[in-house]
Amino acid sequence: MSDDTNNTLTEQRFAELLAAYGADATRWPEAERSAALAFMDNNVNARGMMRDALPLDQWMRASEASVPAFSGLEARILQRALPVGASAFIDRLVGWCLPASGFDVRQLWRPLAAASLPLAIGLMVGFQVELSPDVYATTVEQELYLISLSDYAEIL
Amino acid sequence: MRTAILESDGAADCHRSCANAETGAMVDGHRMLTDEEVMAAIVAGDQRVYADMVRRHGRPVALYAYRMLGNENEAEDIAQETFLRLWTQAARWQPGKAALSTWLHRIAHNLCIDFLRKHRISQDAGLEEDLVDTQPTAEESMATEADHIMLQAALGKLPERQRSALLLTHYQGLSNREVADILAVSIDALESLLARARRSLKNYWQSASQQSAVTGEKS
């Protein structure tokens, strides 16, 4: 018979916790752990459920000693050459342009700076082209010869 | 959030060594970096911090892969690839979304699932090899090894999602919220996966124990 005195957790929820997380209370969700332990202290059925759930946990724990040691794993991982390629550069560029941690001024000016870079390059190229009058002079002469207006060309 | 100061031995024990915020690297042997500081350092190419992360999380990640795949060599390959991605994709980590250990487990989990789908591994085949290679020297180690083999066999029979849910919660020491995040399910759905996984394990264990008891009586 149940002598439940704790209203914050139902017997059904206690059974669900055991079914999902097992009999080791340290694995129960932190938010419900205290209530579940208090419930178990005051509930005979809950203690019975706990006893039933224990052997499976013990079996799962017993096998932990036989897992591979993976000796030297860290050294082998660290021996592997780390790439410093295009992808790393792009990731760093993206990381610089869009800093992920918190909101600060970097989140505004860095994307703006990155976005305005192509505009600045376009303006520079545009000015360079306009400031080359020799190109147009030569082109006009060539055009005149091409359309066979040689007389007019001689006058010029 | 700043992590606590930990001992500098690299947390060799896999059980719960990846839990919560205990993920940072050591600086000057005593101060822990936060996850954000660690990832910023790795993005900047700091190999010392990267090496500390490998020492801290290497074995837990490999053990998770081993329990998922049932094969030590494949598990090591998964661990290698996980840490390569830590190096190359550190800039994609978002601090508010997941702790660093959770992020690493998600990478390892996805690699394991990809591997299982590509190779359609027969867990039982790998376990038979283990049985042949195993030469226990004492009764206790035999019992433990038998438990281990039986558990690996039982885990191998679970559907991938149930297996992942159980391993991440039970052996990797992640919280239910972190595991739900890795598997992209709700907490309710995670609890359902866990309950089904444990029920299947219990049934397998009980029937295997009965079988071995009958075999023992005959011999």
UniProtKB/TrEMBL annotation, chain A:
<protein>
    <submittedName>
        <fullName>Uncharacterized protein</fullName>
    </submittedName>
</protein>
